[in-house]
Amino acid sequence: MREIPLRALKKLFQLDDEDREIGTQLEDPSVVVDHRRVRTLSMRRAAIAAAVEGVRAARAAEREAAELRDAIAGSDRELADFAKGELPAVLERIDDAYAAALSSLVTSDDRAIGSVILEVRAGTGGDEAALWAADLLSMYQKYSVKRGWTFEPLEASAEGNAGGLRNAVVGIKGEGVWAELASEAGVHSVKRVPATETQGRIHTSTATVAVLPEPEAVDVKIDWANDVEEFVTTSQGPGGQNVNKVATAVQLHHKPSGILIRMQESKSQLQNREKARRLLTAKLHDIQRNKLHDERSNARRSQIGGGDRSEKVRTYRWKEGIVADERLPGEYVLRDAMAGDLSKLVADLQAKETQRRLQEL
């Protein structure tokens, strides 16, 4: 049998207890009427379900193994011989169950986050970089549709006249969204011939992607009255000119952190304020998460995975029709990726990250 780290066993048993406690709470009439509380508890239970199922299967197999060992030590030789034949298969089941539970353990926090804010910004490459940023955003929108997620544009700034983007911010909600999109953060490089290139030369352009877990409002405490300054202005287009005469754009300044948020995507001041507050909350949550990561680096496996991924993570090579991820050995079909079929690439990244976390246990 494989040796399971004591710390990991304690965490698995804690999840088992937590699942039973959640079940009790979900039967409490005072909890049932609180739809937000029910949603939070249900999402947490779903996130730890695989780990709980694994540890319970392992425990059941351990009880079976104990009975077989008792039979082997008993006086009934026929029963003892039968038990000796059965024991290896039961021990293998214990190993398999714990392996599955551990794999789920190191990703359970990720799966508990069902909403993210994704930002795409044009990098180096001028107009071509802006077009590339728009292509990336389209790729993520198509992937979201395939996954059945909600894709909500929050902010967008156009660049040039060919449909490019200087930057865009979207909210994406759905099961597994953080677990699948967290590794998208970083610099995405494209090698292709721009539409404006007259001599057919391949150019390299970049766009950066940031993915922020969007927490429940209770996760981040913000003193909106004292720490946040709000300004309401008319929306602005390229060059700074006003695009309407009604003051609907909302700008928030979080004084303690210095973060500035401007939202003008909607024609409704109320909706822009709500979206700006969501984005500010997510950014502050990300700062807290990174600070906690730095302070507790030795206990990283018990936190949400992540870290600084500002380096180049992926290159899209148009001529060869392939996508090469810096963290993976293989190559992927460019046409499929741009059509929103990122399932194989995402699964491979998840598997590698899971293996890394298991090795840290």
Detailed description of the structure:
The chain is an alpha+beta fold. The protein has 2 domains: 6-105; 112-361, Alpha-Beta Plaits (2-Layer Sandwich), CATH 3.30.70.1660. Helices cover 49% and strands 24% of the residues. An 8-stranded mixed sheet has the order 2-3-1-5-4-9-10-11, with helices on both faces. It has a 3-stranded antiparallel sheet with strand order 6-7-8. Helix 1 packs across helix 3 (35-73) and helix 3 packs antiparallel against helix 4 (77-105). It is flat and about 90 Å long. The two termini are 17 Å apart.
Secondary structure layout:
Blueprint: H1 6-26, H2 29-32, H3 35-73, H4 77-105, H5 108-111, E1 115-122, H6 126-147, E2 150-159, E3 164-173, H7 177-181, E4 186-192, E5 203-213, H8 224-227, E6 228-236, E7 242-254, E8 259-263, H9 269-295, E9 312-317, E10 322-325, E11 331-333, H10 334-338, H11 343-360
Parallel strand pairs: 4-9
Antiparallel strand pairs: 1-3, 1-5, 2-3, 4-5, 6-7, 7-8, 9-10, 10-11
Helix pairs in contact: 1-3, 3-4
